Each structure stands twice: as structure tokens, then as C-alpha cells.
Amino acid sequence: MKRPAGSRAFAFLWLGQVISLLGSAMTWFAFTLWVWQETEQASSLATVSFLVFLPSILFMPIAGVMVDQWERKQTLMFSDMGSAFATLIALVLYQFDVLALWHIYLLSLLVGFFTAFQYPAYIATTTILLPPKDYARAQGMIGLAQSSSKIFAPMLAAALYPVIGLGGIMTIDLLTFIAAFCGLIWIKIPPRTNPEPAHPTPAGFTQEVTYGFRYIFAHPTLRSLTILFIGANFFLAIGATLLVPTILSYTSNDGSKLATILSVGALGGIVGGSVLSIWGGPKRRVHGILLGGASACLIGISLFGLARGVLMWAIASFFFSFFEPFVQGSDTAIRQSIIRKDALGRVFSAQQLLTQIPYLVGVGASGWLAEYGMTKIVGTEGSLHLSVTLMMVGILGAIIFLAGYAFPALRRADDKEFQGAH
Q1: What is the rounded distance in angstroms from the CA atom of residue 389 to the CA atom of residue 369?
Q2: Per-residue pLDDT of the chain (422 residues; tens, 9 = 90+)
Q3: Who is most buried in 86, 237, 240, 379, counting CB within 10 A?
Q4: Is 372 exposed, middle or buried (0-12, 13-18, 19+ CB in 10 A)?
Q5: Residue-number span of the structural domain to which 87 is assigned
């Protein structure tokens, strides 16, 4: 049988991601329940998220250079195998009844390291498999895959956790990895067309690592988009990180209610990703970024802080995830239209580093901000400190997105003269 190539290869790659993401999301949901049961502290959950993001951000520029020099398939295989290996270690520790919180912290660092290679490799692979007109639609499908895992994984994990435990869920995760890995091996991904010297000099390697940053700051639209997300991601990170401890705090650690709210939120991502996949997004993609981001902050994060019951939390969670594919898809589509294909790995990695550092800071600071900062102002009665923090960061995030319309390089990001200015 002829191996799939082009759009068919992307479809198989996407299907593999759907399967693998489901298993991984089940494991991390189970980790969330396990960590909360052990500590009942928002700061502990925030630390896990922080440690996953830390290496993925710090290694991103180096990973981007490697992605542009290595074959795409081998890079994807490398990152997938590394993440599976981390899960295998956790499973062995759990089976021997020695799994501890610090193990989860270390494994989070390991997973984050391999994630640094996965994102730029996936973006670069998508770009060479599909024509430019399908970039936004592909991002919608990617968002759909991520949201699908988020809607089914919490429900499955919450149902299976009392029956098969953390070990059984990690075993399922490894099985989904095997299925996705086999699909990745089968598909045909074109080789690179711009081979680099096998042994670059240190000076040359430094130039490659910094190339993406220089590319971004030399282009007004890329520079403006990066500055926008530097500001907004800090508040988005705080909001996203505090959702889970807020639910668990108000519901007395009810895993089923947490799973319901997260699944409804993921359903919002599926609906948003489906709409984006079918529609292709607004004609002026900058509206998808600025209006979508402001809506996610106000209707998602701030409403979540105001809510006091499962129904309203679910509604807020739905809309927070609904607008995410429009923001990410529109942003990625604009960048793909501007950046040269042979530089995608380096530029996307540099952009990720610059925009995810404030996200990382927000993740790390969220628990401490709510538990120690906001507590001194409003107290902890009825978990008010968590709710007020969510309302505030939602409003501030929306202000940053809407302020983007004041800058021509953002407002006219879809115009050809701005896309070509470099």
C-alpha cells in the first residue's frame, strides 16, 4: 500500500495526535487529582504546570535550530518517544509504590524538554504538507484535536481513576502512544530541501539560534504580535492555572464535577475548532486574535471568577476554550504567511520563547498571587481570593487585546504591505 503524502499524510498525522493527546491528557488529569489529594494547594498544581513549561520554553530556540536542520519525521519521533519514556518512568515508580510529589516535578521537566521540539516540528511539518490556503484550517484541526482530548480525557480519567488507579491510566497512555507512533512511521514527510552543514561552527550555531529573534524584531507585524502576546499571556496563564484549584476548592475535591466542567470547556474548544476548520476564520485574521482574545478573557476567565456553581463554571469554561482556536489559528496563519518556510522552526521557536516566558511567570505566580497576595486583601472565606484573582486577570487581559487595535502593525496585519515589510 502506498504511504500517505501531502494532505493525506497530514490527516494521518492529525489522527495520531488525537489518539496520543487523549492518553496524555488522561494521565495529566490523573496527576492533577493525585497531586491535589496529596497537598490540597493551588501552588503545588501551579508548580507542576510551571515545570512543564520551563524547559519547553528555555530550550525552544535551540530546538528550533535543530528542527530546521533535522528531518521533520525523526524530530517528531524523538519528541514523542521522550514524552512516552517519562510516562513509563512514572508508571514504574507508581507500581513500586514510591511515587512522590518531587518525582512528578522532575518528570514534568522531562516532558517539557521534549515538548520544546514537538511544537516547532509539528508547525514546520504542517507547512510543508499543506498549501498556504489550508494553514488556518489546519490550525483549526489541531485545536480540534487538543480540545477532543480535553473533553473525553477528564470524563474517562475520572471514571477510570477509582477503578484502575493512576497506574492503569498511565498504561492506557502508553498504548495510545504506540498507536500514534506507528502512524507517524507509516506516513511520508518530504525531506528538507535546504540541508545545512553537518558540523556548524560555534559562531554559526549562535547565529542560527539568534536568527529567529532578529527575524521577528526586523518585521513590524511579527514584532507587534509578539509584544501583544507577551503582555496578554501573563494574565491568560494566571486564569488558566487557577481554574482547576477554584473548582476543587468550591466543590470539596469533587473529581467528577471537575471532569464535567473541564469536558464542557473542551467541548467549547471542539466547537470553536470545528467552526474555524469549516469556515477558515475571519477574512481579516487579526480580528480573530484581538476580539477572540478579549472575549476569552471576559466571557471565560472573568465570568469564571464571578460564577458560584457548576452550570456557570461550565459556561465560562466553554467560552474560554471556544475562542482559543480563533486566537491561535489566526496568529499562526498570519505568521505562516510572513515567515520563509526554511526559517519556520527558528522563528516560531523564538516567538514561543518570547511569548511563553510571561506565560511561565504567570503560571508560577498564580498560586502564590491568590494564596498569599489576594488573601491579604479579601481573605480566604469561601475561596474568595481565587474568584477575585480570576475576575481581575480576565479584565486586564481583555484590555491588552483590545489595545492592539491602536497599533497599525497589528490592525493591518493582514495587509500585504505589512506582511512583506522586512
Answers
A1: 8
A2: 566 566 777 777 778 778 887 888 888 888 888 887 777 776 787 788 788 777 777 776 777 677 777 777 777 888 788 888 888 998 999 888 888 888 888 888 888 887 777 777 777 777 777 777 777 677 677 766 766 777 778 778 888 888 888 889 999 989 988 887 877 778 777 776 654 444 455 556 677 778 888 999 888 889 999 999 999 999 999 998 888 888 888 887 777 888 888 888 878 888 887 888 788 778 888 999 999 999 999 999 999 999 888 999 999 999 998 998 899 888 888 888 888 877 777 887 788 788 888 988 888 888 778 877 787 777 767 678 888 899 999 999 999 999 999 998 888 887 765 555 54
A3: 237
A4: exposed
A5: 6-186+207-419
User: By CB neighbour count within 10 A (0-12 exposed, 13-18 middle, 19+ buried), where does 112 fall?
Assistant: buried
Task: Say if 193 falls within a structural domain.
Answer: no
CB atoms within 10 A of CB 218: 11
CA dihedral 309, 383, 292, 140 (to 10 degrees): -70
Q: Which amino acid is residue 391, in one-letter code? A: M
Question: At a CB cut-off of 8 Å and minimum separation 6, what does 156 contact?
Answer: 22, 26
Torsion sign across C-alpha atoms 234, 237, 243, 244: negative
CATH (domain of 30): 1.20.1250.20
User: What gap in Å lies between CA 90 and CA 63, rounded to an integer?
Assistant: 25
Q: Rounded to the nearest 5°, which phi and psi values hold at 162?
A: -70, -20
Which amino acid, one-letter code, is at 410? L
Number of domains in the chain: 1
Q: What would the grid cell of residue 357 be?
A: 516566558
Rounded CA separation 168/236 (Å): 33
Q: Is residue 200 part of a domain?
A: no
Contact 122, 62 (CB under 8 A): no
Is residue 192 domain-resident? no
**Overall pTM > 0.70:** no
Which amino acid is residue 217, in one-letter code?
A: F
Q: What is the dihedral of CA 112, 316, 306, 241, to 10 degrees?
A: 0
The SS3 assignment for 2 reads coil
* Residue type, position 374, single letter: M
CA dihedral 4, 6, 8, 14 (to 10 degrees): 110
Where are the extended beta strands (E) located within 139-249? none
